[in-house]
């Protein structure tokens, strides 16, 4: 593949680098940037060639976008930037410095740094070799399982294991064979699932010496043969499982011109075996002959080394762990480029947290922008920076990567992420320091900190404990990964509904659960994970001094709230609050409009899978924004009638009128005509459109109040007149939302079943003004509406779900927690003002939750949502709503 | 209403919706790659039929897919002989960023 030069560190796209400064007798490391069109940081890359071979027209642009995107997104931590700059300068096509040795603390991202170089330069990944306990000769030639010979045997083994994964389980004796030490690297278990990786044949679990691979392979062969015969797979004998010798990764990388990474090189065995190859790579000699394991030989000459090849050997500081050894001098001296990565800083921790949460090192990018010349006296707008971050997150990802939705949501709240990541970074950094004996002793010697506290910490800390806990970058990344996984949350016992002592039937699981966005409760989950980790590794160990110190750190990081006894309540947000990202909260008007646009378009497409066109074609943002911000203060026309603004899901009109008006008209008794109104179902508003109007927070805010009206008092509902005894009025107040004492109101709205021309359906709403919390019962709706409701204190109950009644009972119980029993009775009475329970209900005594979820009630006094597209059509409405049923009542 | 759109445009949009539907439940993450737990449905069928994603039933095919820069999304069926340990090792050793849909 041909190599082309691309530049980082040019005007408009500065590239950060850390430089050492000496000022006032002190060294410090500060961030600089490369920003020079004439002297940028060169990246010689194969990406242009890749796109050209793919037939992409604008291959150069595509390649530059890809490289630039990777460069900023996956940027190494600040402490590694100097290494990156120097290593990049050394990676030129005419360079003879193809060997580099990178030494640093474990978990710093040394392998990541080498892979990063590779990603920028090569569409093919680097060849990775984990040296721990391995014989270095394997880098040149290695003995591997020849699974292409007698391929059907391996296919049948895999097939049998695939069947196990699909439910036809292997008997325990066969499982036991797969779990033998010599096969454990080949067959891995993940719950009931078994994986097979033939490339790991002859390797032992990490930490165990695999240097005599041929001996292990023999044992593994016997075990595999036993498994196959026990599983009924016919074999002629052990010889059916054969081995072959193939070129090792170092030779393959050199010949193909890709990067080779030797990880944990100072744990490798017999490094001398590769010395002669290093000499060829270095240009000390032109060629060498390597003997393979079967008596043959191979000549490696310098002209066989393809352009683009680099060997990066990563090693840990010799003070880390017990099993490290210094590289033999003959090997060490061959590496002309040696890079020593400094200890990680708080900024490094923060950089990695931001990358994990947003896919971008936003703390570093923000720091660069904030301290740049043009912004020193003029702050940049939040919106502009957010847009820039989204641009960078997506740059060059097309066809390669899909941006996870949680990362986009986190970018929208980048200020909270920066603040939270700063606190978390300090926590993990200090946690690592607390368990670091060298650091504690240094503090003792320099008299920094309380001698008593340091002594106590030193007493409780030792290398074994620190290694066991493994605090540092890796632990931090593990916690962040775990918190992204939406898991069941616990609630306090006092919030639990307890056992249903009369229930004798297990509920049916609904077919589909309403999934939750990872970012919604991310902060809460992460805080819980950190608290548990601190508790498990210090209080329960027990390590009282460490626990005391870590508790202080948790409080400083605002994972625990500050001690309120010591002062007034702080306005500082807790970490959980900062990282529980709700895309519906704190959005600007334009963000909310964009969100509504996305939602509407998704709904339209879910109804019409063949529908195409981009969102802006379907629903122009400008029109939507205008309509969403309309003055709704005159929504209530009279005691019978109010106007609702709802999204329009009519494909023929949505682009012109993304929002339209629906008239809520109570069909109660009409004194003038001694009748009630009946509206034909075809004139009713669509159920799903109404649901959207109730799901989108901004629309719900203005729409919810108008769903109740005061016409019941004239329309003949049960008990629909105020009594002198105020207590008796509570149900009526609830039904009309006329300032009920308990704050809870109930109503129902009749609308048209979605997807039908003229079928009626009903929505029931219970709203608690004090919580605020709304329960809505209706037909099945789109999952995105469900999620939106769930996160904005609306409990939606799909009456088609087999668990609808149970869900309603739980929702009502939650709403009634702490309220007198009478409130539920009043609520039921309020409901019955519009509805009657059908007589043919089997046990005659339906519960309230059954009443609102099952077809056992009949709505007598309907609250119609009538589909009139413009407010000016009120006259038309009056004509349409001809009184058709005489009530036979006196006015 | 918008003009009639090409089949290619329609496919692209359906792909976007299918991906969004599938990227709900994060199971694991390795480096920059994320593994999502999914159940089989029209989304999987659509993505495979449009060659937007490849199916990997073994560690070998999974490794090939991870190493291929033209493949961004990989589907691992329930019957696949791959565990998250294997997938994680392959992803971490390659340093590539992929989206993995893991049938559960």
Please describe what this structure looks like.
The complex is a heterodimer of chains A (891) and B (104). Chain A is α+β, with helices and mostly antiparallel strands and 891 residues long. The radius of gyration of chain A is 35 Å and the shape is elongated. Helices cover 39% and strands 16% of the residues of chain A. Chain A has 34 helices and 27 strands. In chain A, β20 and β21 form a beta hairpin. In chain A, α11 (346-358) packs parallel to α19, α26 packs across α27 (697-703) and α26 (687-695) runs parallel beside α30. Chain A has five domains: 4-139 and 248-340, Rossmann fold, CATH 3.40.50.300; 142-246; 346-417, no CATH class; 439-491 and 514-579, no CATH class; 589-886, no CATH class. With 104 residues, chain B is α/β, with parallel strands linked by helices. The N and C termini of chain B lie far apart (40 Å). In chain B, β1 (26-30) and β2 (33-38) form a beta hairpin. The radius of gyration of chain B is 14 Å and the shape is globular. Chain B has a five-stranded mixed β-sheet, sandwiched between helices. At the A-B interface, α4, α5, β8, β9 and α23 of A face α1, β1, α3 and α4 of B.
Spatially, the strands of the biggest sheet of chain A line up as: 6-11-14-5-15
> Stretches of chain B where pLDDT falls below 50 for ≥5 residues?
1-5
Shape of chain A: elongated
Please bin the fraction of helical residues of chain B.
40-55%
Q: Assign a percent range to the helix content of chain A.
A: 25-40%
Report the principal-axis shape of chain B: globular
Mean of all residue-level pLDDT scores of chain B = 86
* Helix count from the secondary structure assignment of chain A: 34
Write down how many β-strands of chain A occur, each being a DSSP E stretch of 2 or more residues: 27
Ends apart, CA distance between termini of chain A: 91 Å
Main sheet summary of chain B:
5 strands, mixed
Structural class of chain A: alpha+beta
Roughly what fraction of the amino acids of chain A lie in strands? 15-25%
What oligomeric state is this? heterodimer
